[in-house]
Write a structure and sequence with these properties.
Blueprint: H1 2-21, E1 28-31, E2 34-37, H2 39-51, H3 57-65, H4 69-96, H5 103-112, H6 114-143, H7 151-170, H8 173-200, H9 204-219, H10 226-240, H11 249-252, H12 260-272, H13 274-286, H14 299-308, H15 310-345, H16 361-378, H17 382-411, H18 422-442, H19 444-468, H20 472-477, H21 481-490, E3 495-500, E4 515-521, E5 535-539, H22 546-560, E6 567-571, H23 583-592, H24 595-598, E7 603-605
Parallel strand pairs: 3-4, 3-6, 4-5, 6-7
Antiparallel strand pairs: 1-2
Helix pairs in contact: 1-8, 2-8, 2-12, 2-15, 3-10, 4-5, 4-9, 4-10, 4-12, 4-13, 4-17, 5-6, 5-17, 6-7, 6-15, 6-16, 6-17, 6-19, 7-15, 7-16, 8-13, 8-14, 8-15, 10-18, 14-15, 15-16, 17-18, 17-19, 21-22
């Protein structure tokens, strides 16, 4: 029966790969003079990153929470798939705003502004740098397990891995995708056979271990205080989150695909592959009866030797090295995309110069230098690197979901077709920020590194943004409050109607001569499109919120236009959306009702014009 299972599984893989390779341009294609990747290519590049987590994440989870890690890894997989739907939504939002790639940096810049985006840069850089370094360490440790190489030689091999991947990226993304696909084919056969072998070798002791794991897992939630149960949930997910590192890479490399729909397909591919394989391998390995404490860096090759023999264990060790090396590749590709977007936005054109293969070779050299520095600082310790990695990873997840919440509550779903539940996103955000707090407390090395890099990047970013921020030209073109004052003075009528209109509100073409429309906008979010000469778009000043801008405008009008000259009526419109859809609007209305006491000489209106019937 076991032999039949192996034959069926391998035959199915052969048929699947023959079908794929017969399709034209199934990995890359030329589009508008640039080589683009298909959803399969992007999915495979990211999969090779996520898949590598099986070589270190199960033991790291076991080290923190014990054998119940078996079920927490499965639970975390569900949470990550839930998160991936939000990544797809972010991908479409970025595309609708003419932004390609950049991931958490681009989105946080769009929603939160330039200052906070530098916090996102530091978080994702920490994640990518540590993806590369921890994968390098694990690759060498797993690949040399059966060779008996000394620690000094292994340490130098780690620098060789970084050099190899740097060269692979310099030769271009098309060749990169082909090489990654070949490794993926090899990995698919090895891991499917490992799963079949693991399932076939389940014995009574393994079943008992799984049962004990389930009892320990459920004991964290039943019969305890709800707050204790939530704390246990956060500790469990925080201890297993590394098993799914790399998921953000799809969104980060969105500029390499044609549109956001390819991102959605790539995430679905990941859910149906690594989202299922990782929990199963963790279950089989942790319940196999291996002395876990003595196999920190080689748990999976040891497990493979036990279920399918020593030769298969050597093959898994080789696969570990190859896939972990490609995780370094994924980190380098994604971080290059990130640094390219930052360089483009702040006009550092010298950094994004490409070679004949359209490779960002200067950025790749910078990345390689960072990776080597971290290896030297940590002496190549997997435990130290894992602790550092978790902080940057969860911080980037938290920033992404927080930015999505702010965007959805302020702009709704009018411009996008793919959207998820805001309540679900809010719950996910609370879960992630709780996990981040736990990890920062439990893993001081990672917290320290993240804090230091964040401070350095933030200080540099603030200085750069003062002179190079991309929204500076747009702010120079905006109309100002004095333009509004001059317009009021030009109107002969004593009664002046000023309508404060939101950027997304529908325009009414029929306006009276004594009417003025004012819209506040953020240059990175909205594009001024005045529908009449008396419509004033005014950019929101940095460090000021919308209510502060309204107050500032009204104070200027009050000072420049005496009450004896003009009778001013202020119209704020009627909010028609539900409180859940427009929570931010509700807060704004709460502030607006304070204005009559601040400006007692003005008339305040909150009304709705209704639909006008067209007359023949």
């Amino acid at each position: 029966m076991e032999t039949i299972s192996f034959i069926i599984a391998n035959l199915a893989l052969v048929i699947a790969f023959v079908y794929l390779t017969r399709k034209k341009d199934f990995l890359s294609f030329l589009y508008n003079g640039k080589w683009m990747l298909t959803w399969l290519a992007v999915g495979i590049i990211t999969l090779m990153d996520e898949l590598t987590s099986i070589y270190y994440a199960p033991f790291e989870a076991f080290r923190f929470i014990g054998i119940k890690a078996i079920f927490y890894i499965a639970l975390t997989s569900i949470v990550i798939r839930f998160l991936s739907t939000r990544m797809v939504e972010i991908g479409e939002i970025l595309e609708k705003n003419n932004i390609r790639g950049g991931g958490v940096y681009s989105f946080s810049y769009l929603v939160l502004g330039p200052t906070f985006s530098f916090v996102a840069i530091s978080s994702i850089l920490v994640a990518y740098i540590l993806t590369a370094t921890i994968s390098t360490v694990s690759a060498v440790e797993n690949g040399t397990y059966f060779l008996g190489i000394g620690p000094e030689m292994r340490f130098f091999l780690k620098f060789g891995v970084i050099g190899l991947i740097t060269g692979l990226n310099i030769i271009g993304i098309k060749e990169n995708a082909r090489f990654t696909f070949l490794i993926f084919v090899f990995a698919a056969f090895v891991l499917v056979n490992l799963l079949v072998g693991g399932a076939a070798n389940l014995d009574s002791n393994s079943i008992t271990t799984i049962g004990n794991s389930f009892k320990s897992f459920t004991g964290d939630f039943f019969g305890v205080n709800p707050f204790i149960a939530y704390r246990n949930l956060i500790i469990g997910i925080g201890s297993c989150i590394l098993a799914y590192s790399g998921i953000e890479s799809v969104l980060q490399t969105a500029s390499l695909v044609k549109d956001w729909k390819q991102i959605r397909k790539a995430y679905l591919f990941l859910a149906l592959t690594v989202g299922i394989v990782t929990p199963l391998i963790a279950l089989f390995a942790l319940s196999s009866g291996i002395n876990l404490s003595s196999h920190e860096t080689d748990l999976i090759p040891t497990f493979a030797s036990k279920v399918n023999g020593n030769f298969f264990g050597i093959i898994v060790g080789i696969l570990a090295s190859l896939t972990l090396i490609l995780a370094v590749n994924t980190a380098m590709v994604a971080s290059a995309e990130l640094m390219e977007k930052v360089a483009e936005k702040y006009h550092f054109s010298w950094l994004i110069h490409v070679n004949k293969k359209q490779s960002l070779y200067r950025i790749h050299f910078v990345n390689a230098t960072f990776y080597c520095i971290i290896l030297l600082i940590t002496s190549g310790s997997q435990a130290v690197l894992a602790e550092m990695y978790a902080v940057g990873l969860v911080a980037s997840f938290t920033i992404n979901t927080g930015s999505l919440l702010k965007y959805r509550y302020s702009k709704g779903t009018k411009e996008i077709t793919y959207h998820t539940s805001k309540v679900g996103t809010l719950l996910l955000f609370l879960l992630l920020i709780s996990t981040l707090i736990y990890i920062m407390i439990a893993r001081p090395y990672g917290t320290t590194l993240w804090f230091i890099i964040t401070m350095v990047v933030l200080i540099m970013g603030i200085k750069i943004s003062r002179y190079r921020a991309p929204d500076i030209p747009a702010r120079r073109k905006t109309r100002n409050v004095m333009d509004l004052i001059f317009k009021i003075a030009e109107i002969e009528s004593r009664e002046i109607n000023i309508f404060f209109r939101r950027p997304l509100e529908e325009e009414h073409n029929t306006v009276q001569g004594n009417s003025i429309f004012v819209s506040f906008y953020a240059p990175r979010l909205d594009t001024p499109t005045p529908f009449q000469e008396n419509h004033f778009w005014i950019a929101i000043e940095r460090r000021l919120n919308l209510f502060d801008m309204i107050t500032s405008v009204l104070k200027t009008i009050e000072y420049e236009i005496p009450k004896s000259e003009k009778d001013i009526h202020l119209h704020f419109g009627w909010p028609l959306s539900s409180w859940l859809d427009r929570l931010s609007t509700g807060i704004m209305i709460h502030n607006i009702i304070k204005l009559p006491r601040i400006f007692p000489n003005y008339h305040f209106h909150m009304d709705h014009e209704g639909k006008q019937e067209k007359r023949p």
